[in-house]
């Protein structure tokens, strides 16, 4: 079906735009691990989106085939027990694709354990609103050049 | 509240920045987000960005936040000229800004001109009587001048209005502890635990204060809170494990001459469990000090 090609075109176009944007924003700093991770995440999300669209299309195609099959059975005046095997196979494939897309699209899942490394509070924020400058470090100014 | 992953990320970025790798802007944003106090590094690398006009224009509108961050770091490192210059630039860009007004008053504080700073803060308060940051600065000024009782008075008045401010409760508890008024400090920590019961650091601090006050009921309560800390951190808090061992031996010592039911309060199984967990952790992280730990634990159990 030709309209299946449109999500692919959308994906490639958006990838090229993203690539252009990121190369423009790169300053003199070397590209760090965080930017690489973010790019990888975006690509994975795009792939998940495409797979999800495919899965929904396959499911709707299976639904249309089942409706057509029931119409056929009504003409032949037979009982409708279950859809034919190829439609069942299509259903299973569609469900698997949608499942994979639903798990990949939201991105990183958060941890719920209170003592996992993501949620464990190692230190409280240093109260910078109550910060005083009258400490012992006052007598040791750092040796750096003045501004301007 | 800094989590473990954020702490490792911060240390990694810090090493990268200090050894000449890139990622300075990310480090500065992370320091701003986590509200940690790393003034020297922020000053050094922030200044290097600000002195380079190419990098400065690459920041766009974030340039002014960087000016503010570098100004505060400069005040902390006692480079008052740098701070003055940053504030001058900010004042040129935003002439009638309250935020810049607060920075100027902060600079007066850093210079040690307390009366002028007081006047500046009162004038800022007239325009905006419910500004939290200015009230907190008045408390900080009282603390810096060495008048903790005045600081406590201001902070109590502030907390009557803004009861949900965790940082203020914590600050009050720390001032009380520094003045050895432990019962009031315990009250402050109780307030903190009520509002944020899932944060194990508050339970730990409360247990420390209870242990310091002493007396049998307080020691039993302290042991309960140490146990709660261990529960909430999944056993990763060394201080809480040590706290249980110390509480156990102190309780055993206090209830020496009592009858049977009080002796059951000693709970020797809990103490031995904590001791084994401690030895396991030391074997993993600091095997050289394991002998020291074992002898200390043995002396605790004997007494």
UniProtKB/TrEMBL annotation, chain A:
<protein>
    <submittedName>
        <fullName>Membrane magnesium transporter</fullName>
    </submittedName>
</protein>
<keyword id="KW-0472">Membrane</keyword>
<feature type="transmembrane region" description="Helical">
    <location>
        <begin position="85"/>
        <end position="103"/>
    </location>
</feature>
<keyword id="KW-1133">Transmembrane helix</keyword>
<comment type="similarity">
    <text>Belongs to the membrane magnesium transporter (TC 1.A.67) family.</text>
</comment>
<keyword id="KW-0812">Transmembrane</keyword>
<keyword id="KW-0256">Endoplasmic reticulum</keyword>
<dbReference type="Pfam" id="PF10270">
    <property type="entry name" value="MMgT"/>
</dbReference>
<feature type="transmembrane region" description="Helical">
    <location>
        <begin position="43"/>
        <end position="64"/>
    </location>
</feature>
<dbReference type="InterPro" id="IPR018937">
    <property type="entry name" value="MMgT"/>
</dbReference>
<comment type="subunit">
    <text>Component of the ER membrane protein complex (EMC).</text>
</comment>
TrEMBL record, chain B:
<comment type="function">
    <text>Part of the endoplasmic reticulum membrane protein complex (EMC) that enables the energy-independent insertion into endoplasmic reticulum membranes of newly synthesized membrane proteins.</text>
</comment>
<protein>
    <recommendedName>
        <fullName>ER membrane protein complex subunit 2</fullName>
    </recommendedName>
</protein>
<dbReference type="Pfam" id="PF22890">
    <property type="entry name" value="TPR_EMC2"/>
</dbReference>
<keyword id="KW-0677">Repeat</keyword>
<dbReference type="InterPro" id="IPR039856">
    <property type="entry name" value="EMC2-like"/>
</dbReference>
<comment type="similarity">
    <text>Belongs to the EMC2 family.</text>
</comment>
<keyword id="KW-0472">Membrane</keyword>
<feature type="domain" description="EMC2 TPR-like">
    <location>
        <begin position="100"/>
        <end position="209"/>
    </location>
</feature>
<comment type="subunit">
    <text>Component of the ER membrane protein complex (EMC).</text>
</comment>
<keyword id="KW-0802">TPR repeat</keyword>
<dbReference type="InterPro" id="IPR055217">
    <property type="entry name" value="TPR_EMC2"/>
</dbReference>
<keyword id="KW-0256">Endoplasmic reticulum</keyword>
<dbReference type="InterPro" id="IPR011990">
    <property type="entry name" value="TPR-like_helical_dom_sf"/>
</dbReference>
């Amino acid at each position: 079906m030709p309209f299946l090609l449109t999500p692919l075109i959308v994906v490639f176009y958006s990838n090229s735009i993203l690539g252009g944007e990121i190369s423009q924003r790169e300053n003199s700093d070397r590209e760090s691990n965080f930017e690489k991770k973010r790019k990888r995440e975006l690509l994975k999300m795009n792939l998940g989106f495409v797979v999800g669209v495919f899965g929904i299309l396959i499911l709707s195609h299976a639904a249309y085939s089942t409706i057509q099959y029931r119409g056929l059975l009504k003409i032949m005046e037979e009982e409708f027990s279950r859809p034919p095997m190829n439609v069942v196979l299509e259903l299973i494939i569609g469900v698997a694709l949608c499942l994979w897309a639903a798990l990949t699209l939201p991105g990183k899942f958060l941890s719920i354990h209170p003592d996992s490394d993501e949620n464990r509070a190692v230190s409280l924020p240093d109260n910078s609103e109550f910060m005083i400058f009258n400490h012992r470090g006052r007598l040791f100014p750092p040796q750096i050049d003045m501004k301007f | 509240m800094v989590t473990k992953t954020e702490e490792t990320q911060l240390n990694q970025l810090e090493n990268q920045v200090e050894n000449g790798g890139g990622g300075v802007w990310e480090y500065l944003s992370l320091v701003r987000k986590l509200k940690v106090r790393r003034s020297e590094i922020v000053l050094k690398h922030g200044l290097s960005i600000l002195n380079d006009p190419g990098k400065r224009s690459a920041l766009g509108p974030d340039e002014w936040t960087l000016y503010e961050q570098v100004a505060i770091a400069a005040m902390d490192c006692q480079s008052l000229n740098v701070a003055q210059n940053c504030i001058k630039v900010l004042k040129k860009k935003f002439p009638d800004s309250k935020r810049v007004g607060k920075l100027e008053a902060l600079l007066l504080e850093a210079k040690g001109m307390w009366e002028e700073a007081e006047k500046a803060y009162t004038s800022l308060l007239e325009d905006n009587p419910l500004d939290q940051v200015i009230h907190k600065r008045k408390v900080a000024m009282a603390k810096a001048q060495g008048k903790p009782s005045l600081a406590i008075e201001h902070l109590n008045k502030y907390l009557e209005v803004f009861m949900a401010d965790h940082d203020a409760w914590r600050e009050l508890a720390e001032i009380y502890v520094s003045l050895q008024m432990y019962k009031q400090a315990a009250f402050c920590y109780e307030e903190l635990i009520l509002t944020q019961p899932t944060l194990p650091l508050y339970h730990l601090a409360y247990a420390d204060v209870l242990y310091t006050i002493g007396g049998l009921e307080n020691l039993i309560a302290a042991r309960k809170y140490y146990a709660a800390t261990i529960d909430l951190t999944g056993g990763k808090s060394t201080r809480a494990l040590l706290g249980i061992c110390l509480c156990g031996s102190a309780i055993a010592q206090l209830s020496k001459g009592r009858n049977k039911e009080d002796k059951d309060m000693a709970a020797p199984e809990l103490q031995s469990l904590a001791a084994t967990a401690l030895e396991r952790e030391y074997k993993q992280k600091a095997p050289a000090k394991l002998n020291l730990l074992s002898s200390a634990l043995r002396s605790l159990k004997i007494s």
